[in-house]
Structure formats: structure tokens, C-alpha cells
Specification:
- The chain has helices spanning 21-27, 53-60, 75-88, 99-110, 125-137, 150-156, 179-188, 201-204, 238-251, 257-268, 270-289, 308-314, 330-339, 369-374, 391-410; strands at residues 9-10, 31-32, 92-96, 116-120, 141-145, 161-167, 192-196, 214-218, 232-236, 294-298, 321-326, 344-345, 355-357, 381-385.
- The strands form three sheets. A seven-stranded mixed sheet has the order 3-9-8-7-6-4-5, sandwiched between helices.
- Helix 4 (99-110) crosses helix 9 (238-251).
- 47% of the residues are buried.
- It folds into two domains: 5-268, Aspartate Aminotransferase, domain 2 (3-Layer(aba) Sandwich); 271-410, Alpha-Beta Complex (Aspartate Aminotransferase, domain 1), CATH 3.90.1150.10.
- It has 15 helices and 14 strands.
- Pyridoxal-5'-phosphate binds at residues 98-100, 124, 127, 167, 171, 196, 198, 218, 220-221, 230, 232.
- This is O-succinylhomoserine sulfhydrylase.
- Pfam families: Cys_Met_Meta_PP.
- Its EC number is 2.5.1.-.
């Protein structure tokens, strides 16, 4: 049986007008072929055929919309793009091969040699490298400032500043940026405001509603949520996304149909997963704060957090990532990690499985000692990406860590 294009329909988005995010996560951007499958089909094809030579010419000439080649468009990728765009409240989404490809494509499409970027200091390590090493090679200079110090942002603005780039909350210390203030600063100075929304996802925070021009995701993290695929996406107004799409189409860091299908299905459970991550993380953060071996807990859901009020205003929940300092140094931190038996020792985050990381020797290991201390990455700091296991079982496993520290101090 052959499928004709006429039989493949994107279910009309207008039917979903005014519906909530939980519904959009399950229903937006759904594709259905003539087979009337309930779950979405995958289109693992590099190219598409035409019903005639004239149609091929019309497609290539841009007179007729439709698929040509999967570096340009692919139905499965478009289904994922439609769903995440609806969830972020953006006009258009462009999917990419990784979160880094999403950031790179945004920069390549919207910046040029001679432009200046201001970026928050605590961003994902590779984002730092991309700006500092690679964008710099093409004449784009980046200044790094404190995520939370608005005066530092204002002082860093120059006549050639074209982009303000942040992650909020930050990794791993959960600092929270005032998005509305930064959006105003960007727009008063003719710059774009770009937010990497990896930690919150649209379920907890929709940056476009707080003045961001562009939202970026590493879909690898919560959007998938089960650690299966690497991917990314950029969301924003059509005018800007057309430029990002143009870069992708020419340069090629596009998302594969298989990965798009995994992310598309991942989005269906994102709202309930995020609520479970948040509930577990909040409970663990409060529990950790009471442990005698813990010096300090970093989690925006705690009243002790300096931006607790701002996080409450901007976010619907405080997310699944938290960090804490043990009393002691690297030895205690490693001893604690090694005593856990269920929690995964890995630097990945956003998974339904809880993971534990020692940032100073892994994710932030490349930073100089000065940069580490500037970023608050101390040797006694641990990061937890809290999964959706039963919180009592997570406490049991973490208790093994505390027990190991107690045993060591008793001998
Ligand atoms: C992982 C991550 C990235 C990079 O995404 P990849 O999919 O690994 O390329 C970017 N930003 C944040 C905040 C991340 O956690």
C-alpha cells in the first residue's frame, strides 16, 4: 500500500485553541496517515518522491509546499517541532541534532562578525567553549557576567551587543535570573534575549512569556526524559526561526526522524514527569538540609535560597536538579558517592533515574581553580538530578552515603 500525501494530515491545531499545556503535550503536532494509526508514525526516509516531473519542479521552485529531502523537512521532525512550539507558546520551532547544535545554529543564523554577546557565567560548560573558542574565531566576542547581578549585565552592554544568553536556573547551583529585567535590558539595546530552558522545560517556565525572544533546549535531557537520544530545538517567532531553519538547511545539523519520534513521545509524559521530579527534589532538598553532614543545600524551592521569591514568580515548580555541600572536601564527596548503590554515578541529568555527580572533577573539571571558585564549584559540592523513583528509596540510598561518612569519622 502506498501513502499519498493527501492522506497524511497534521491534526488541526485550531481544535486545541485555549487548551492547557498538559493537553498540548499529548495532542499538539500530531500527524496521522491514511492508516489512521493512534500513535504517531515514523518517517525514516532521506528523500521524498513526486507524482510528476512538474510537481518535482514546483517543489524545488518553492511554488508548492511539501517535503523534498530530510535535511530540509521531515514529517516526524515537524510533528515534534509543532508540539514543542505549542508547549513553549512560540510561533515556530526548529529541531536540531543536539542541544549544542541548537545554540550553534541560533548564533550562526542571527549573529555576524563584529557582534558582541553577553552570557551568564554559570552556563553549560560546552556552551562556554562554543562562545569563547569557536564563536570568537568568527569575530563574535562574548563577555561573561553573573547570572543574578543586573548591574554587571548593564555595564557589559556595548553598542555592538546583539545577544544576551542565559540559563535559568543555573547548573548546578540553581541560581535564578530575573528574565523580565534582562529582556528589557536586551530590547532597550537592540539585542536578542535567548534563554536555554533545559532545566525547567515549558512545564515549569515559558521564557517567551517573560520577554525572551528565543528559547533553546537540549532535548537530550527532560524532553526525552529517559536518556535515549541526543537532540535539541530552538523556539521563537517565525521571522527569527526562518533564519535558524535556513542555516540548518544549508549546514545540516538536523534532527533524525527516529530521535524526533522519541522526543515527540517523550513530550506526552513531560508534565507528569516534571511534577514528579519537582516533588521528589523539594522533599530531598528539605531532608538534606537537616542532615548533620550537610553544610548547605542549593535549591530554589527552599526558603533559604536567595532567589526563592523570584523563582516562585517565574516558575511553576523548582525543577529536578539540586546541589549540596558536604562538610569536608573531595574525599568526603567521593566517599559519599561511592557509598550509594542505586543512584547512577553519571554526569547526565533530566532522566527519570536519579543521578549523582561531583561537578569539580567532572562537568566543571576543565575550569581553572579560579574559575571554579568564582562559579562556586567547591570540592565538597555534589549535584543530584532527582528522578521519579519513590522518594523514600532515594533517601535510603543517600543515607548509605551519610552512613559512610559517619563510619569514617568514627574510626
Ligand atoms: C546538556 C545541555 C546542553 C547541550 O545539549 P546536548 O544535547 O548535550 O548537545 C545545553 N544546555 C544545557 C543547559 C544542557 O544541560
Amino acid at each position: 500500500m502506498t501513502f499519498h500525501r493527501e492522506e497524511t494530515v497534521l491534526i488541526p491545531e485550531s481544535d486545541l485553541d485555549g487548551m492547557s499545556l498538559d493537553t498540548l503535550a499529548v495532542r499538539a503536532g500530531q500527524l496521522r496517515t491514511g492508516q489512521l494509526e493512534h500513535s504517531d508514525a515514523i518517517f525514516p526516509t532521506s528523500s521524498f518522491v513526486y507524482t510528476s516531473a512538474a510537481q518535482a519542479a514546483a517543489r524545488f521552485g518553492g511554488e508548492e509546499p511539501g517535503n523534498i529531502y530530510s535535511r530540509f523537512t521531515n514529517p516526524t521532525v515537524q510533528a515534534f517541532e509543532g508540539r514543542i512550539a505549542a508547549m513553549e507558546g512560540g510561533e515556530r520551532a526548529v529541531a536540531t541534532s543536539s542541544g549544542m547544535a541548537a545554540i550553534l545554529s541560533t548564533c550562526m543564523a542571527l549573529l555576524k562578525s563584529g557582534d558582541h554577546v553577553i552570557c551568564s557565567r554559570g552556563v553549560f560548560g560546552t556552551t562556554n567553549v562554543l562562545f569563547q573558542k569557536y564563536m570568537a574565531k568568527f569575530g563574535v566576542e562574548t563577555s561573561f557576567v553573573s547570572l543574578t547581578d543586573l548591574d554587571e549585565w548593564s555595564s557589559a552592554v556595548r553598542p555592538d551587543t546583539r545577544m544576551l544568553f542565559i540559563e535559568t536556573p543555573s547548573n548546578p547551583l540553581c541560581e535564578v535570573a530575573d528574565m523580565e529585567a534582562l529582556a528589557k535590558l536586551a530590547h532597550d539595546n537592540g539585542a536578542l534575549f535567548v534563554v536555554d530552558n533545559c532545566f525547567c522545560t515549558p512545564v515549569l517556565q515559558r521564557p517567551l512569556e517573560h520577554g525572551a525572544d528565543i528559547v533553546i533546549h537540549s532535548a537530550t535531557k527532560y524532553l526525552d526524559g529517559q536518556g535515549r537520544c541526543v537532540g535539541g530545538v530552538v523556539v521563537g517567532p517565525t521571522k527569527l526561526m526562518d533564519e535558524v531553519y535556513g542555516f540548518l538547511r544549508s549546514a545540516g545539523p538536523t534532527m533524525s526522524p527516529f530521535n524526533a519520534w522519541v522526543f515527540h513521545k517523550g513530550l506526552e509524559t513531560l508534565p507528569i514527569r516534571m511534577r514528579a521530579h519537582c516533588d521528589n527534589a523539594l522533599e530531598l532538598a528539605a531532608w538534606l538540609e537537616q542532615q548533620p553532614e550537610v553544610e548547605r543545600v542549593f535549591y530554589a524551592g527552599l526558603e533559604s535560597h536567595p532567589q526563592h521569591a523570584l523563582a516562585k514568580k517565574q516558575q511553576k515548580g523548582f525543577g529536578g536538579v539540586l546541589a549540596f555541600c558536604l562538610k569536608g572536601g573531595r574525599e568526603e564527596a567521593w566517599k559519599f558517592i561511592d557509598a550509594t548503590r542505586m543512584i547512577s554515578i553519571t554526569a547526565n541529568l533530566g532522566d527519570v533515574k536519579t543521578t549523582i555527580t561531583h561537578p569539580a572533577t567532572t562537568t566543571h573539571g576543565r575550569l581553572s581553580p579560579e574559575d571554579k571558585s568564582g562559579a562556586g564549584i567547591t570540592e565538597n559540592l555534589l549535584r543530584l538530578s532527582v528522578g521519579i523513583e519513590a522518594v523514600e528509596d532515594l533517601k535510603t540510598d543517600l543515607h548509605r552515603g551519610f552512613q559512610a561518612l559517619q563510619n569514617a569519622s568514627n574510626t
